[in-house]
Amino acid sequence: MNSLRRRLILLLVASIVGVVGLATAAVISVRGGGPPPELTVPWIAQQMELVVRLLPGPIPDVLRVQFADHPAGGKVARAETAMLNDILHRRGLDFPAVVNEKTDEPGQIASMHLPDSRWAIIEVPHLKPPRREWLVLAGWISLIVAGATAVSVYFTSVLIRPLEMLEAAVSKIGSDGVLATVPEVGSAEVKATAHALNQLSSRLRTAMESRMRLVAAAGHDLRTPMTRMRLRAEFLDDERDKWLHDLDELDRIADSAIRLVREEVNQDAVEAVDLAKTVRDIEAEMVSLGHAVSIGHLEKVCVRAGALGLRRALRNLIVNAATHGKACRIDLAAAHNRAVLTISDHGPGIPPELLNKAFEPFFRVDPGRLQSIPGAGLGLAIAKEIIERYGGTVTLENRRGGGLEQTVVFDAV
């Protein structure tokens, strides 16, 4: 977004400054060349005619004429000289005249030989540039750049406001995948964008609620026929144990589905949780249940989360590691204002091509199925749902020496 904003501002500033700069350069070019000879030479001829007619009397100061024994020096301007002599001749003044370029500054000066052998010297009108011309030009360009930048920043903000609204709405997507409500205020385009986002959010919320109701209803409705099947299986003599085993598996699937929906709907209060103490409590519970769980390096660090939900998520991860990985070790470190919890096991790991699917509901790796380990494949999905709800992340990675490493990262408080 910032890159687009900078590009638009630079484009607008460059366009405005370029146009004004070209116009300024054109004005300076026209002004720097001075007026054309067709305007100045006739005026000089008229001045010289007045001087000739007023002699030998006094010459008024308004004519600004000087007298010398020789003409002005400098390079002869041939075109202007020829034009001046032609005009004087047509006015009946057959006195030689010459127009020279000034040697020390821009401009020209005209000289005419008078009857008394003196030379009348008159300066040709020339528009001189102001003093400190480049300083004035720099100030002029600076004002243009400042004004163009202010205008560009304002209009760029107006242009990219819908994009900023999209970015803000996407960044506020909750763990349930629903967009936050966007206020429908501003210009017509901004209102249209906000209205479209709110419609999308409403449809997403409806779809999510429909999915949760479907899963919860399916899990709940499965309990009744399973209960009847369990009662009937009690009267079977052959394969009764197999029937009861399958019913237990169906019951676990239904319970896991209902728990997943509850985790998406129910959210406990967020508070500062001592992560090290929570890990110790879970480790003691797992050991009492016969799981091979050990604690390695453990630093004291607190995170903001729901105590019950976080405990449930970490328990699911640790049970997964201890069950499928035979044994697991838990490490907790605090670095750069982050709490990093690592759960390492010694199991077969997960094939690399399936790592990105491990958090999907009902996911089971084939070797896990062959081991007849109970579970519905929702433990990791529930854990991920809880951890991300409180602003954390959980990732899986196969260890080089074998086994799987589960890494949970939270912002420390």
From TrEMBL:
PROSITE patterns: HAMP, HIS_KIN. SUPFAM superfamilies: ATPase domain of HSP90 chaperone/DNA topoisomerase II/histidine kinase, Homodimeric domain of signal transducing histidine kinase. Residues 217-413 form the Histidine kinase domain. The chain crosses the membrane at residues 134-155. GO terms for cellular component: plasma membrane. One of its GO terms (molecular function) is ATP binding. Its EC number is 2.7.13.3. The keyword Hydrolase does not apply. CDD domains: HisKA. Keywords: ATP-binding, Cell inner membrane, Cell membrane, Kinase, Membrane, Nucleotide-binding, Phosphoprotein, Transferase, Transmembrane, Transmembrane helix, Two-component regulatory system. It catalyses: ATP + protein L-histidine = ADP + protein N-phospho-L-histidine. Pfam families: HATPase_c, HisKA. It comes from the Bacteria. It is an enzyme of class 2 (transferase). It is a multi-pass membrane protein. Residues 157-209 form the HAMP domain. PANTHER family: SENSOR HISTIDINE KINASE ENVZ, SENSOR PROTEIN CREC. This is histidine kinase. It comes from Mesorhizobium ciceri. The lineage of its organism: Bacteria, Pseudomonadati, Pseudomonadota, Alphaproteobacteria, Hyphomicrobiales.
